[in-house]
Amino acid sequence: MPFINTRVFGFFGLASLAMLPAVAQSGLTLNRSASVPEGFYRSQNGALERGVFVTFCPPEREPFKSALARRYLEPGKCGIGSYPMLKRIEGVAGDHYKINHGGIWINGNLIPDSAPVARDALGRSMPALAVTGIIQRGQMLVMGVKSPESFDSRYFGLIPTNGSTRVVPVLLWESAHVG
């Protein structure tokens, strides 16, 4: 898969924003979030299994509504009013999970860098979960892979698999921004 540096990408990165309508119709997703590698991802048929990237519209519930108001999620065309999220699946049906202040455990194994932060960069309190259970059919646990501050299952728990799309990276680039 091609990987390029944003300093080389330069003007073309900005120009790519004008192509977003054509990108959406082609089955490509542009990710500019720091949660997963930045770049273009393409829809792919296949199972929603551990380790694959997935896009999904956030459910219309808290804490997603607050995340949109705080701009953790950008405004878009999902039912809640945001763009779809892009994360990696870490937990699937049948897995035992635990989410608390120490992080996320799947089948007894702690996911590295999964401890939630108590406050965001502006000092606002973040959702705090203390849940444990078995992931049921039709549910999944998702995480960002590049940023320990990613807004993911450590803050919102399990999400439905219904309406989710498996994606694969097509073209990625390095980014200078943090978070």
Flag low-confidence runs. 1-12
Strand content: 25-35%
Number of helical runs? 4
The total domain count is 1
Fraction of residues in helices? Answer: 10-25%
Shape annotation: globular
Rg for CA atoms: 16 Å
| Beginning-to-end CA distance, first to last residue | 24 Å
Query: What is the name of the CATH superfamily?
Result: Umud Fragment, subunit A
Task: Output the helix-strand order.
Answer: EHHEEEHEEEEEEHEE
DSSP strand tally: 12
Largest sheet: 8 strands, mixed
CATH class: Mainly Beta
Structural class by secondary-structure content = alpha+beta
Average pLDDT: 87
Question: Would you give the CATH topology?
Answer: Umud Fragment, subunit A
The name of the CATH architecture is Ribbon
